[in-house]
Fold these 3 entries.
Entry 1:
Amino acid sequence: MSLKLIKLLSLSVFLTACSSNTYDDVEADTQPLPELVTYQEVQFIFDNACLQCHSNPPQNGAPMSLVSFENVRDAVLTRGLIDRISLPEGESGLMPLGGPRLPQQNIELIAQWLEDGLLEN
Ligand code: HEC
């Protein structure tokens, strides 16, 4: 192999590496689409804080169950669920009944679920 050919080959390898680097940079700059919040991401909040009363059948005077996707979606749409969990600590009507208020990040996650269209999955 001539020296010239070796030089030419290594130059082309260099150029290829260079162009694929550039491609990676462009890839990294492209922000991935934000994930939608679905019921899968919020279900644990209801399981932990609400099922003690909003079980199926409901207990302790709770008027409805919050055990399934449909239950929770309907309560958001027709029973003011997000308003009830957003009340200030100690305010009458705050859910979970008797407190403590849910962590703010969980309330915001549920509000985001509504904003994203109350998807199941
Ligand atoms: C200790 C029992 C208890 C827990 C825990 C509890 N609830 Fe309730 N919930 C009740 C009772 C009793 C009522 C009916 C009285 C009222 O509306 O305040 C009620 C009412 C509601 C209502 C209004 C229903 C309507 O038709 O007016 C919503 C919405 C609600 N709860 C959501 C929740 C959510 C969400 C959680 C969990 C974050 C939760 N609750 C936790 C007992 C509870």
Entry 2:
Amino acid sequence: MNEPGDPRLPSTHDGAPVGPARRARLAAVAVALATALAATAVAGDAGHGDPQRGFELLRTKAYLPADFDQEVFDRLWTTWEEPLRSRAEAAPLAERRRMAMERYGLVADPADASRSLQYVVDDRGLWTMSCLACHQGQVDGRAIAGVPNSDYALETLTEEVRQVKIATRKPLAHMDLGSLLIPLGTTAGTTNAVVFGVALMRHRDADLNVVPAPPQLSYPHHDMDAPAWWHYRRRRQLYADAFAPKGHRVLMQFLLVKENGPGQFAAWEEDYRHVEAWLESLEPPAWPWPVDAGLVARGRGLYAAHCAECHGAPSRDRSVADGYPERVVPLDEIGTDPVRFAALSAEQRRSLAGSWFGRGAAEPRPGSDMPAGYVAPPLDGIWASAPYLHNGSVPTLWHLLRPAARPVVWRRDGQARYDRDRVGLVVEELPALPAGPLPAVERRRHFDTTRPGKSAAGHDFPDVLDEEGKTAVLEYLKTL
Ligand code: HEC
Ligand code: HEC
């Protein structure tokens, strides 16, 4: 069992069938988990929301129409390629479910291993996507509160759900249809979430009334790596370009499906105060393995000299700088992929800030509707949030520190294993995509940095360090 305040979620990865005794134990674990997680809340930080309630709402309350039912989930294996399909067919139900979770990058709910934290499952067996789909992952097989889900294979899951529904004559839901118009994520672990938001906001006025808008056929599609939620408390404005005002209403954008009208948003507002309290309460997780103290000390000095001006003082080490500057670095200086930056117009940024979502939020920083580039995020808990950069194009911190050695193509193995030496995902590095047609599921396991929106270039600042300096900074980054 974890110590109180330890932000790990307990692992339930053995895939054993859930009998009554095990169910009781898991229920006890869930209560202890919520209590332990709530114990990380900082008094006074949370406004009048209750963090524990916020986490429970995320885990148990559906805010969107259901995506599929249990029967569809339990038949997904029928769409898989061989030999996986035969293995699944021969396996007991619990093992088959575990295989499905692994394939789609889902994390078992500590309270019930047959469910995933990514979807709320109701008493009728209906599965509904939640914020945790993209915002609750695992590291080295363990769920850590607020760690982004770097394994989520939304596009593959949606395609296979659609196939099963068509085969079993079940009605298609909003995702099954939406994904025919908008790509959901071309690489596992990343999603086209920003464009979902843009497309949904097009059909609303400032008070969130549904308004007619002509269909828009071309969008600046691009995949993003969700940021760690434990940064929320340190941010004053949100997103990769720090344009959005911070507040509980802004958190609700993802719920803009046509079924949810303005009245529904108002009715759920209180829930999202609790959700915001959960986000505010999260602490960066501590590196669980030994470090070399001498290297760390050397790395600290180099960080203070070369990194702190943009990334500020880590939560755990305020000795290296004053606070967190939330500095936005112009695109030509940072040199990372420009597609996300160009995807939003000043008018779109302004219309979010001026809508119901922005009302009551903290006053946006002047000029934030026209940011110059990307924000330097806090580096708290950075060891746990691979892959790196806003588009998730760099698999480890070792590669982040060595711009010239970043792979052109890298491949993950299903739910990626953790690389303690290079700090990040265990990946295979390739000079290019394998020749010949790749099945879509396999193609999505490859991150191809030559594709639009997927460049791993830029952020060359670490090159002021020599090889030994980079080794020392890597060691220091583990401790943040
Ligand atoms: C389909 C994946 C997905 C889902 C579902 C999702 N998010 Fe996100 N979220 C993202 C991505 C990607 C970003 C980064 C966007 C950017 O920076 O432009 C993000 C950014 C954020 C941020 C800003 C964090 C920061 O440091 O800037 C917050 C807060 C957040 N999401 C909360 C939520 C909440 C609350 C929900 C549920 C109502 C939710 N998200 C649902 C993918 C998702
Ligand atoms: C001039 C400002 C600046 C300096 C100096 C700088 N960075 Fe950054 N850093 C950024 C920005 C901006 C980003 C986000 C870029 C993006 O996502 O496209 C970033 C991203 C990162 C990331 C990835 C964060 C994530 O969550 O994916 C790491 C790690 C990082 N920097 C480490 C360092 C280290 C170590 C140094 C010092 C050797 C350093 N940075 C120096 C501005 C800076």
Entry 3:
Amino acid sequence: MNVLRTLLSVITVSVVLSSCNYDVLHEADALDVDLKERLQKASPTGELSHFILPASTDYDNIPHDPKNPLTPEKIALGKYLFYETGMAQVAARQSGMETYSCATCHVPSAGFKPGAFQGIADGGVGFGTQGELRQMNPEYEESEIDAQGARPLSLLGVAYVTNTFWNGQFGGGDLNEGTEDLWNDEDFTSINELDLMAIEVQNIEGMGLHRMEMTPELATEMGYRVLFDLAFRDSPVSDRYTTLNASFALSAYIRTLLPNKAPFQDWLEGDYNALSNQEKRGAILMFGKARCYTCHYSPALNSMEFHAIGVNDLYQRGGLNTWEYDRRNFGRGGFTKDPDDMFEFKVPQLYNVGDGAFYFHGSSKETIEEVVDYFNEGIPENPNVPGTQISAKFRPLNLTKEEIADLLKFLKNGLRDPYLDRYVPPYVQSGNCFPNNDALSAEQMGCE
Ligand code: HEC
Ligand code: HEC
């Protein structure tokens, strides 16, 4: 009797289970079909493959500058230099020497953004776990520190950025064709005249702006000579261990920072279990009802469009070295001086966006939930931005609570590459602490 009952219940349970499995599968199938259709419609090429990021070693398919070809040797060098506090040789004060690196402001574990609302390199001390404890070095005047009037952009998928900065000012090609007469104004150098792509141009400028340099002596002292020899065989030895070549290596390396192990990427490659049903529903919203794709549609889910969505500026939350009339607050218009471009900012990428804690160019939001609410409500927050400038694509979405939860799940998990550590070297050749090397950071990070 007991045996029979057990047997019966086993049968019932398995029938229920398998029909339930069947429903789950069925729902997943339907969601996959729906998502594929939406992506095809959202894709500028009409193909799903538009959204697939290349492997970081697929050099032919990573957008790059033919004048700075991607090679494993150059990328390996750039991977050290990006974190190398030893290049911090042009600090404004002695106490800043050899204390900062590119990764001070572009922190891998914060999605290659800073962990604080503003990045501070020279003139900053402290780190915490992802830069959240960075503060001004009391020995510096505010005007002496290296802190910019906008939050650092993420460098994930930066290969898909044809003109860099929130205002797109760097790079003479693409969007900046026809802006030649702007390249010599007081705030700007003629660097765009170099016949190079934006990332290469910007990093030449960036080495100087961020007070870094490379010399033959440094290369020898820090142990980079051989790496430069391998990466820049074609440069004459007299011209090999230079700040310029260091910038080229950095450019090559950052072009390989592709979040290609995010679950959404696996799904695009045909692993339909990589996303949960909730994440799939979120993706369907992102590429459908929530209309995120109308602006975020390039492979890194950025785009080279500029839009005013009326968020607050950095000075409004107490940013250092910035003020109401900082031209960075005017977005594209701050560069082109065209009234039509005022307050329009570049559409940034969306991978690992939940890893940091500050959103928008002025870090006016601190959670991804707040960001989604902002888009859902569609009400500009910055009183300085005239309503006439606000993008027609920025309007209320009327998403339900459940839809918001689904969208958030996709943003936080589906678009999160959990293995970004692969882009971080185990040490830098100088043996310095990184990404910061001031005493306070070293202590907080447990460097010896
Ligand atoms: C003091 C902080 C700081 C340091 C150090 C720093 N950056 Fe940045 N980075 C920024 C800020 C801020 C922006 C955005 C500026 C803007 O748009 O007005 C930015 C933007 C960029 C961009 C453009 C991204 C895009 O989508 O347009 C690239 C590329 C970049 N940085 C690379 C580097 C490299 C390479 C280094 C090291 C040489 C470096 N950065 C060091 C703060 C920093
Ligand atoms: C009108 C075009 C447009 C639409 C539609 C749009 N975005 Fe954006 N998004 C932008 C622009 C422009 C910025 C940068 C604004 C700024 O900082 O001034 C941005 C910034 C963001 C950021 C912050 C990224 C960072 O690095 O700080 C997130 C996250 C984001 N968008 C997600 C979404 C989601 C989710 C949707 C759909 C609900 C969406 N966006 C719809 C244009 C758009």
